[in-house]
Amino acid sequence: MSADFSTEKTFTYLKGYAMGAGMQETVSALSYARQKHNGQMRKSGEPYISHPLIMASHAVSLGITDDATVAAILLHDVTEDCGVEIDTLPFSDDVRTIVSLLTFKHQDENDKETEKAVYYDEISTDVRASICKLIDRCHNVSSMAGTFTEQKLLSYIDETTRYVLPMLRKTKDMHPEYGDILFVLKYHIHSVIDSIKATMEPYVKSS
């Protein structure tokens, strides 16, 4: 991450934006997420908190100002990665519902594909959770090159194609009012994945 887009500057920008917009849960979620992710690092070597902060920045740049949605974006990994139980989150029922939908509930090691199908189907029942997941995927596909192994890259692209993009289409059909936002997210995901696949193709063919 460049110095012009540092974690601290992003945090300060989002806090000022949220305060000015009266987004109280987002203001609280900023501090809560930073506290819970303290000391955690991304595979790229950046502080983990940079991930939800960049996601939240993407959301507000797309015109998403729903307080519960942006707060949930900031908190989307605290259950899976920080051991926080959903019912202990000191936020509204709306925020807890979105975070719960975004939390992958792994139970059967031998049936991961069924679990993924159920996971994405449940997310698609809530447009706010769907948008959170799509912004999450946008940032992850943008940052996976150079950090994922070739096998992990191919697996992640396959999951995106099989589950995430169909979820996006379903969300667009059910919520046409979000069509512009969903178009931008679809374009972002497709363009990054297509670029990575084109770059990898000679190596995959020769392996």
What is the count of distinct domains? 2
Strand content: under 5%
Query: Helix tally?
Result: 10
CA-based shape: globular
The share of residues in helices is over 70%
First-last Cα distance: 32 Å
Q: Helix and strand string, N-terminal first?
A: HHHHHHHHHH
How would you portray this structure in words?
The chain is mainly α and 207 residues long. It has 2 domains: 1-87, Orthogonal Bundle (Hypothetical protein af1432); 104-207. 70% of the residues lie in helices and 0% in strands. It is built from 10 helices and no strands. It is globular, with a radius of gyration of 17 Å.
Could you name the key traits of this structure?
207 residues; mainly alpha; Hypothetical protein af1432; 2 domains; globular
Compose a concise summary of this entry.
With 207 residues, the protein is mainly α.
Task: Write the SSE topology.
Layout: H1 7-20, H2 24-36, H3 50-61, H4 67-75, H5 78-82, H6 93-102, H7 112-123, H8 127-143, H9 150-174, H10 179-206
